[in-house]
Amino acid sequence: MKIVLPGGTGQVGTILDRALSTAGHEVVVLTRHPRRPRDVAWDGATLGPWAEAVDGADVVINLAGRSVSCRYTPENLRAMMDSRVDSARVVGEAIAAARRPPKVWLQMSTATIYAHRFDAANDEATGVIGGCESGVPDYWAYSIEIAKNWERTQTEAPTPHTRKVALRSAMVMSPDRGGVFDVLLRLARLGLGGPVAGGAQYVSWIHDEDFVRAVEFLVAREEIEGAVNLAAPDPLPQRDFMRVLRKAWGVPVGLPATRWMAELGALAMRSDTELLLKSRRVVPGRLRDAGFEFTRPGWEAAAADLVRRARAARAVPGRPGRVRVGGGWAHSSPRP
């Protein structure tokens, strides 16, 4: 198949690019900074010659959007909104204008769209969309609006011949340097991976191998449209999540952090406490109903695998972590 990845140079895009290429697919990456023959330049906001890559493609997987690993200032929040909405809009325009439109358009979304809650898990049928919670910072609601507008832009795109799926993804765990797992593992190795603000908030996650397999599954299942949660079926409270990770690496103790300590840490890392404090209790209702089977459904086995691959990468400088796809192995580290 010919697969086009707008915004395919980030962590998730790199995982998919390498995995799908290794599986034998023709992968074209739309990027602002093309470096390889199969990279195509685009600006993520306006139609241009790049749209020719979409015409005749089998699949488009749009991953474009400003990174959420930043301080949630008004300027950065607006950039998150604009980059996601603009890229989804222009991808829709390219598909609508194509003489041979792709069969399916997978649009990245986020599990953050669901409410901050502890009492029950959020699936696609019964989950509570966030934005009206009490006792949380007001700007958290803006993150929900970003997600809603992101999905709405795809839904409203006039692409009648292309099936559309919104990927409400949890955090994708891989041993890539600079990815979310790398950050969490660094905290654990330093002895800082204890409960944050009590640690009752849930962490939803998905192993990189299952993320790739879920994408392949959704491409193949022609009856699935709309929003789909990409999350392992075993979200955990943050205190348990980090305890399992510490055990996998062999760190006996993780110092706890209060809310204000988390704020200082997020400030030092140029990130935001929403990523640490929001309870994301998300489960994969539609995937499980459709018969998808996770290879790493539990965090203990997933963490052990990720730690093993992270150790291997550190033992041999320059060796990336790898994810098994379609009977082979695909590198999952960022490109040089």
Automatic annotation (TrEMBL):
InterPro entries: DUF1731, Epimerase_deHydtase, NAD(P)-bd_dom_sf, SDR39U1. Residues 4-230 form the NAD-dependent epimerase/dehydratase domain. Residues 270-306 form the DUF1731 domain. Pfam families: DUF1731, Epimerase. It comes from the Bacteria. Belongs to the NAD(P)-dependent epimerase/dehydratase family. SDR39U1 subfamily. This is TIGR01777 family oxidoreductase.
